[in-house]
Write a structure and sequence with these properties.
- The complex is a heterodimer of chains A (416) and B (309).
- By secondary structure, chain A is an alpha/beta fold.
- Chain A has 18 helices and 16 strands.
- In chain A, strands 6-7-8-3-9-10 form a 6-stranded mixed sheet, with helices on both faces. A 4-stranded antiparallel sheet of chain A has the order 2-1-4-5, sandwiched between helices.
- Chain A is elongated and about 90 Å long.
- With 309 residues, chain B is mainly alpha-helical.
- Chain B has a single domain, classed as MetI-like (MetI-like fold, Orthogonal Bundle).
- In chain B, 82% of the residues lie in helices and 0% in strands.
- The radius of gyration of chain B is 23 Å and the shape is flat.
- Classes of the chains: A alpha/beta (416), B mainly alpha (309).
- At the A-B interface, helix 4, helix 6 and helix 8 of A face helix 8 and helix 9 of B.
- The complex binds adenosine-5'-diphosphate and magnesium ion.
- Adenosine-5'-diphosphate (ADP) binds next to strand 2 and helix 3 of chain A.
Amino acid sequence: MAAKLKIKNLTKIFGPSPAEALKRLRAGESKATIFEATGNTVGVNSASFDVEQGQIFVVMGLSGSGKSTLVRMLNGLIKPTGGSIHIDGEDIAACSPATLRRVRREKVAMVFQHFALFPHMSVIDNAAYGLKIKGVAPDERRERAQAALDQVGLSAHAESKPSDLSGGMQQRVGLARGLATDPEVLLMDEPFGALDPLIRRDVQDELLRLQKTLKKTIIFITHDLNEALLLGDRIAIMKDGEVVQIGTAQDIVSQPANDYVAAFVADIDRGRVFTAETVAVEPAVLQLDGDTAGDAVRTMEEQNRGAVYVLDGEQIAGVVTYQQAAAADRESGTSDVPIAEVMITDYPSADPGTQLVDLYGHASTGLPIAVTDADNKLVGVVEPEAVFAQLSGDPAQDEAPPAPLADDAAQPAAAR
Amino acid sequence: MRPSDFLVIPFDEWINIFVRGWLVPNFRPFFRAVQVPITQVLNGLDAVLAFVPMLAITAIFAALAFKYVGRGMAIFTIVGFFFIDMIGLWPETMTTLSMIITAVLFCCVIGIPLGIVAARSDLVWKFARPMLDVMQTIPSFVYLVPIVMLFGVGMAPGIIATIIFALPPIVRLTNLGIRNVRADLVEAAEAFGSTPLQMLFDLQLPLAMRTIMAGLNQTLMLALSMVVIAALIGGGGLGLVVNTGLGRLDVGGATAGGVGIVILAIVLDRITQGLGEQSKVKTVSLRQTLISMFRPGANAPAETGKVAP
Ligand SMILES: Nc1ncnc2c1ncn2[C@@H]1O[C@H](COP(=O)(O)OP(=O)(O)O)[C@@H](O)[C@H]1O
Ligand SMILES: [Mg+2]
């Protein structure tokens, strides 16, 4: 997948003498000292990252960390002091006002924290605003705005005024306005920050649902780590204008780049961040016909496991524990016990994407959990201890790290 | 000992030299030309108002008052206009009305664009603001003399004096209205690629309309207050009636003229105020208000009507 946005050394300094402040910044002075010495505020300090086509890229940070400044530079609402922003190879930081207008009309739409709906226009006129600006004919405009309202479930309110709607509905209108022009990139500056927690959950799910079909490239700003972890394909954490870490939710929770990030993720519900595949390991397997209880015991002893899965061809037949296999083997003396006799057919299983919170029950059976793909093929197993270790924030497999099943491309190096 | 022992500045002489010696001879044609559109608009309006029967005009104003203010104001308009007619001042009132409409029209044509430009450029506003202050604070008698010298006497110079005096509020309030449009809305319009003109017509003017109408109302009131002064340099109408009464110490005549001005002022003031209320952004519809009145559980319109935080 190609990078849709390439951001390099993007810097913004507010104040009377950006050039001087920039020099001090390059010399390594902090945001606070630069402000005291020169009266300039460092909004964003040398941010660099790429955003892949179709991804949700979340920028997360506390208030004042420069998130809004960063996202506003991406569509030229704020002019960068330095650095470059390439969207499909076009530099937004150094283009004419006319080009910038074209990019905003054709390619990059925005959704705002406080909705910023036009109070004198009906909901449908709000949704149609971008199309009007583009010069789309009134009939087609209405049709497309209506379609955008349908997408967010607001078609019934087309003729209302924004002020007649609840906050959650208003932000849906904001989203419809952003989607109506069918932009490739959607910038969302804390879009759900002004909503009640329950409603926020709703619109988050709605966004994920829409994104499944729309596959927009989304830059999503939030100060809420849970929201970041829920929505972000990749997450950038900002502090004092700097990007301190970029990675997937799991990267950030499992390998915080510094104490700041670590403190952030400390009370995160890890059960919702990590999935079965992140703690799964290669399965040890036996075949239903041919292998015996003795084979099972040997395999488990060699691989230091408490249980192994038994396959019938490609399909899973069941699981054998060390205790049962060893007992049967001992009692039978020299004759071979077919493995089917000691096999438990009622085994726990889960999808690779299952969240760890949903594995608690399975893990408490003591059996390794079979991780199966869509064809019910065994792709890995999750040892119960691994679930609890990951949840406690102490994946104790330092000496023998689990071989993650996800391909390596999805697990880029965490920090820059 | 005092400063004038050392230096006497012939300020009045300088002004004389400037106006008489330079401005008048060099710019006479220009000042004549400026009057042409004013005279034409005035004559047109005057002809229309003289042609339309008194009852028809009363009916139109009463209807406007009913629509934008209410029944009481409509009744007042009818009674007031009948009274003016019965004291024999209808033609003068119509002359004054056409002068005022002309002056206000030109104030809008000049003032609204100026206010828009001032709202968009801090630099322009920095220069415009002290000029507006001066225009509003100089006693109008002071500029009557140069106006007479430049434009002569008559209706048009009277209207020009009125325009100068009444222009500031509409400029100020247009500027204010546009500057007060919520910054996040302006940003949103910009984020969707609006050109400055699209922004102006789709967003800024509609949202500033209420403030601009308040400016129009003030401009209109200032124009009315200039009626008597404008009559000093040849403006006719009710102002002339008052002035004539003053000259002859005819208290009855002067009072009659004054009452006519007051009635006209009240009617115009209330109607333009009502217009301003109309053009505000409606946040609560009439239907909703009714619903909320009949459904005790429903939110009060004032609450649901709030613009989102
Ligand atoms: N227009 C501005 N002028 C001066 N300083 C600004 C301006 N906008 C933002 N800042 C400063 O830049 C920093 C980053 O602000 P912002 O991007 O709004 O942060 P966030 O969105 O993460 O809360 C803050 O210190 C803020 O005070
Ligand atoms: Mg912000």
